[in-house]
């Protein structure tokens, strides 16, 4: 399926929802369900960009990039479109950056069934308003991603996880140079170090009590919270916190979202109202009310 | 015509921070581009509340307003049109707080880019975006233009370094977009506000992400007997999985101008030099430097000079950063362009740039961010020579067209402003532009925040006379 066919399937009149692999919440009920094109269209390692259908699975994309020694900052699992639409990073955000910095260009289908191009295909671009920013984390409420161009990164030579109960994670944030991840559950600290083997070894040697582990700990799934990193010290309950970032994987289901001001709420209403006047895209999904681990789509 | 408005503004700011003198109005009617407009009054607020009152007053009178930082923009983005109110943020220049542990700071928009980096240097931190104008450009201006700089190759442009913005929206209300937390609820309004060139509101406070200073830095200069060899080296470095902190290129004319100016010992007979900076932990850094040198030699590098100390490193960078000052030795005027092309098309586009300049009988120097394909062809000329400006404008137009034709974009870091507004349709179709216009309308239904920039109005398409004199479109 190409973009034109995808646009035709979205159409211009009835309520419609989009689904990828269903790993991030799946489609909205009471609406016709469509799926975005899949497949890698173009990958040029020297450009460090890749073009693919939004329905491509993240794992397929990662394995293609790995063959050329590259990777990108999307969380594994599900589809590329789902990962972008939810906009939530994985535990490597500290070192590899957020999902939102990955999207360079998007071709999406708008509420009138039109194909719209946002952004540009080069790694640097300030030509006009950056609609890609609006699309990442918009849960398909403003348009359905069809084809995207993403920024890739070189894969580090070595990537190793260590754990310790003998170090202050907040001090490690200052003393380690660009760890890929720094997690803390109140007692144990996990750190992912990446780069040249000897540098990783030397950095690990500087972490008191560090022992190598297979990977990050199992994350509590009660809720995923976004808090100012300054407030992480005072966390209670069962949690794994991303130090230096502020994402907290908490055992309790009660999610805490950012307080939304009247002005921001108003802007959301105006944007949604202009991009999707009849509210046909992912009907019933309110981006100001999407919390915790569930998404509206994938 | 705006007597009442000016009285109201004086009521808010006092007479001394509301400028209406003829000389001041002329000064504030332009930025660092060749374009000038007109303003009827310039406001110098010192607080968010004062910015809010200025905006409200302008809105009450239905008069457009334009936010302005240091005025170093190169695309006319801060040029007021038709007597618009200028709201200059230069007096809001305080660093409000620095959180060293979590590497963030709240600053006012008038803080100068390099001043922030100097301020946080004792803590081993810096603000990553480093435009060539970093000594004089403001953080608010960086936000408005989503500014880049040589070191944005590895660390990303301004948008990657902004966590939150306090803004005065075009209706005069104040709110915070984004937040100190990583995933604020809802649409990424922070993200779309960055780079919106003052058309979605005015930034009054900025929460920036600070970056750890690297433990080690190595800077090297390689020279080539052809521009192609230099450009191919760039592609090979990136394809080889190395992402240097900076990867800059200068061509022969530029090398000669710079050398006469800074005496850095640059090879005057080289067709191109590459300035490569690699940062990181010692062992990986050594490996990267060795590999970069190998790749350079494989692609015909004639010599490799590794800066032996900080003084030599700064001298090499001085050469790169003072290129524009050095140009004055060749001709009195210059026009700096800014497009981005896919990295693998650099060689071919550079060849076309030379061909275009030659056909229009102009000198062209190239000094640019080769690592991310961000070209900065610099046309140098003497505007007193009859017919020169026409040739400069035509050549510029062709350079933009050539860049977009190979899959490039209109601007990498200067923005669209007035300069490239009517070129937007080279890159975007009607549905694409309509979507951008919708975003603008959602924030500013009255279209009073810096109107007539970025988005071509259907009526003005092809009407070059609607753009003030000095623009080259």
From TrEMBL, chain A:
GO terms for molecular function: catalytic activity; FAD binding. Keywords: FAD, Flavoprotein. PANTHER family: D-LACTATE DEHYDROGENASE, GLYCOLATE OXIDASE SUBUNIT GLCE. Residues 1-155 form the FAD-binding PCMH-type domain. Residues 204-227 are annotated as: Disordered. The keyword Flavoprotein applies. It comes from freshwater metagenome. This is Unannotated protein.
Automatic annotation (TrEMBL), chain B:
InterPro entries: FAD-bd_oxidored_4_C, FAD-bd_PCMH, FAD-bd_PCMH-like_sf, FAD-bd_PCMH_sub1, FAD-bd_PCMH_sub2, FAD-linked_Oxase-like_C, FAD-linked_OxidoTrans_Type4, Oxid_FAD_bind_N. The keyword Flavoprotein applies. Residues 34-213 form the FAD-binding PCMH-type domain. It comes from freshwater metagenome. It holds the Pfam family FAD-oxidase_C. Gene3D superfamilies: 3.30.465.10, 3.30.70.2190, 3.30.70.2740, Uridine Diphospho-n-acetylenolpyruvylglucosamine Reductase, domain 2 (3.30.43.10), Vanillyl-alcohol Oxidase, Chain A, domain 4 (1.10.45.10). This is Unannotated protein. Keywords: FAD, Flavoprotein, Oxidoreductase. Coiled coil: none annotated. One of its GO terms (molecular function) is oxidoreductase activity. Its cofactor is FAD.
């Amino acid at each position: 399926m190409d973009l034109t066919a995808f646009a035709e399937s979205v159409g211009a009149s009835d309520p419609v929802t989009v689904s990828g692999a269903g790993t991030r919440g799946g489609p909205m009920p009471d609406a016709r369900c469509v799926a975005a094109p899949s497949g890698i269209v173009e990958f040029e390692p020297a450009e460090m960009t890749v073009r693919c259908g939004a329905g491509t699975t993240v794992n397929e994309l990662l394995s293609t990039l790995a063959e050329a020694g590259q990777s990108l900052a999307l969380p594994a699992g599900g589809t590329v479109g789902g990962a972008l639409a939810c906009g939530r990073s994985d535990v490597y955000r500290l070192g590899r950056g957020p999902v939102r910095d990955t999207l360079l260009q998007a071709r999406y289908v708008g509420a009138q069934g039109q194909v719209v191009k946002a952004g540009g295909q080069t790694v640097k671009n300030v030509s006009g308003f950056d609609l890609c920013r609006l699309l990442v984390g918009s849960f398909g409420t403003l348009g359905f991603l069809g084809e995207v161009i993403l920024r890739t990164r070189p894969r580090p030579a070595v990537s190793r996880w260590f754990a310790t109960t003998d170090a202050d994670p907040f001090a490690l944030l200052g003393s380690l140079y660009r760890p890929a991840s720094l997690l803390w559950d109140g007692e144990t600290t996990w750190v992912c170090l990446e780069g040249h083997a000897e540098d990783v070894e030397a950095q690990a040697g500087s972490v008191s009590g560090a022992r190598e582990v297979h990977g990050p700990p199992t994350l509590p799934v009660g809720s995923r919270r976004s808090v100012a990193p300054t407030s992480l010290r005072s966390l209670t309950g069962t949690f794994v916190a991303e130090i230096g970032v502020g994402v907290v994987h908490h055992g309790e289901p009660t999610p805490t979202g950012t307080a939304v001001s009247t002005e921001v709420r108003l802007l959301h209403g105006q944007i949604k109202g202009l991009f999707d006047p009849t509210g046909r895209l992912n009907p019933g999904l309110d981006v100001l009310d999407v919390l915790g681990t569930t998404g509206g789509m994938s | 015509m705006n007597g009442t408005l000016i009285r109201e503004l004086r009521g808010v700011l006092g007479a001394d921070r509301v400028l209406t003198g003829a000389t001041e109005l002329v000064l504030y009617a332009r930025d660092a581009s060749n374009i000038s407009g007109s303003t009827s009054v310039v406001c110098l607020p010192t607080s968010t509340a004062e910015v809010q009152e200025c905006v409200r007053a302008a809105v009450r009178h239905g008069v457009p307003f334009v936010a302005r930082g240091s005025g170093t923009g190169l695309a006319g983005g801060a040029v007021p049109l038709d007597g618009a109110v200028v709201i200059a943020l230069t007096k809001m220049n305080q660093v409000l707080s620095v959180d060293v542990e979590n590497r963030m700071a709240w600053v006012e928009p008038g803080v100068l880019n390099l001043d922030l980096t100097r301020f946080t240097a004792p803590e081993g931190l810096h603000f990553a975006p480093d435009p060539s104008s970093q000594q004089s450009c403001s953080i608010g201006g960086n936000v408005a233009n989503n500014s880049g700089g040589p070191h944005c190759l590895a660390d990303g442009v301004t948008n990657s370094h902004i966590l939150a913005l306090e803004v005065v929206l075009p209706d005069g209300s104040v709110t915070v977009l984004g937040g100190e937390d990583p995933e604020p609820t809802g649409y990424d309004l922070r993200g779309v506000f960055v780079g919106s060139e003052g058309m979605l509101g005015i930034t009054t406070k900025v929460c920036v992400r600070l970056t750890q200073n690297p433990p080690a830095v190595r800077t090297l200069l390689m020279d080539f007997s052809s521009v192609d060899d230099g450009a191919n080296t760039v592609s090979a470095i990136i394809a080889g999985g190395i992402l240097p902190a900076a990867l800059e290129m200068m061509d022969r004319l530029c090398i000669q101008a710079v050398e006469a100016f800074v005496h850095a010992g640059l090879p005057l007979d080289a067709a191109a030099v590459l300035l490569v900076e690699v940062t990181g932990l010692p062992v990986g850094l050594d490996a990267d430097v060795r590999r970069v040198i190998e790749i350079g030699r494989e692609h015909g590098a004639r010599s490799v000079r590794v800066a032996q100390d900080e003084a030599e490193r700064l001298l090499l960078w001085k050469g790169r950063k003072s290129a524009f000052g050095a140009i004055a030795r060749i001709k009195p005027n210059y026009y700096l362009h800014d497009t981005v092309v896919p990295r693998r098309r650099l060689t071919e586009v550079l060849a076309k740039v030379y061909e275009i300049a030659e056909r229009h009988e102009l000198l062209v120097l190239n000094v640019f961010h080769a690592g991310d394909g961000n070209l900065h062809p610099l046309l140098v000329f003497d505007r007193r020579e009859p017919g020169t400006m026409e040739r400069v404008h035509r050549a510029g137009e062709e350079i933009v067209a050539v860049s977009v034709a190979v899959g490039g974009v209109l601007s990498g870091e200067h923005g669209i402003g007035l300069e490239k507004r009517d070129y937007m349709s080279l890159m975007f179709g009607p549905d694409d532009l309509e979507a951008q216009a919708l975003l603008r309308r959602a924030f500013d239904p009255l279209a009073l925040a810096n109107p007539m920039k970025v988005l071509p109005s259907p009526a003005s398409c092809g009407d070059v006379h609607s753009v003030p004199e000095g623009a080259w479109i």
